[in-house]
Amino acid sequence: MFKYAFRIVEIHWENEAMTNPVLDAIKKRRSVLRFEESQIEEEKVNAILEAGRWAPSWNNKQPWNFIVITDKNIKEQLSEVVPTIFVQGLKEAPICIAVVVNPEEDPSHFVEDGAVATQNMALATYSLGLHSCWIGLYDIKGHRNSAEAKAKEILEIPRTHRMISLLPIGQARYGVQEKERKTVYQLTYKNKFGNR
Hints:
By secondary structure, the protein is of the alpha+beta class. The chain has 8 helices and 5 strands. It has one domain (25-175): NADH Oxidase, CATH 3.40.109.
């Protein structure tokens, strides 16, 4: 009988991440709140959208749509409904991608589907030498006066659809800070919760 044994140990990604672009992007991607106003090449925007398109979804339902926002007036309107910390970056970023999902296409998993599409695009953004900031707008209770509802109105999103996130994208205006993470040992158990 095959026995699989493993120990939860502290793993250092440095050597692997230097040769693996996916691990490198996962480790080094950070949310950026301020952007340079320099334009982004169309090829890079298309590559980021492709990353969203190839995200996993339940039963391959792909319930998402992406809205690429470049209009300054629309970004200005959106900046009035997002949490204050994101206002300036949303105005500055040359593009912003709204991730919208149709719950009718996947009633049980539309939130996760939209979230993983957003994450794919955030990682692709970093891998292309750009930065982004995930602005989560989905309001679990669907309040009529929520940031999500106001943003949906601005973007003329159908009432049947939900908005998961906004992803401003551009070059970081300032240096990006490294942040600490909990260790794998702190986060991981073996076979049952709490079992080391």
